[in-house]
Design goal:
- By secondary structure, this protein is mainly α.
- The N terminus is likely disordered.
Length: about 170
Amino acid sequence: MNSQQSPSRLSKQPSTLLGEGFDYAALDPETRIVVQQRTSEIRSLLRRTASGTIDIGEKLIEVKQKLSHGYFGAWLKAEFRWGEWTARKLMQVARCFKTVNFTDLDIAACALYILAADSTPEAARLEALNRASLGEVISRSLAKEIVNYYKKATQPCDQKLVTIDVDAETLGRE
């Protein structure tokens, strides 16, 4: 336990609080109420961040369509100090998830970038959205884990290639 932390705030050692869910019962009632309230507020802000990421991407798509060739990068740099790579990622997220309602989904914005990548199998995106709809929090590391699983599943099996030398005469005899 941290030497500056009041013993009344936690009745257990912090190491016993790790696992599937946080052990709120280990907190005194006042602390429990505050921490649970902040948890709810943070989750709400995270969902808004995911929705905001999509909104930004959609607006970037619109601006890019309106500006003449060569102006988009200059506009990004002047207005936001962004490069085209940043805008491309935001627009990619918008294209992938524009129809998804993030109101009840806990998907970190950084996980959206991983899931929206061109190299991400569609099955991985669907798996992440399904798991989020069941209440699971999709963090960056979980998104990577899901994507890697589906990438491995779609790779061809390791097979030894056998080379057979056949000359033209052999082919002509049959």
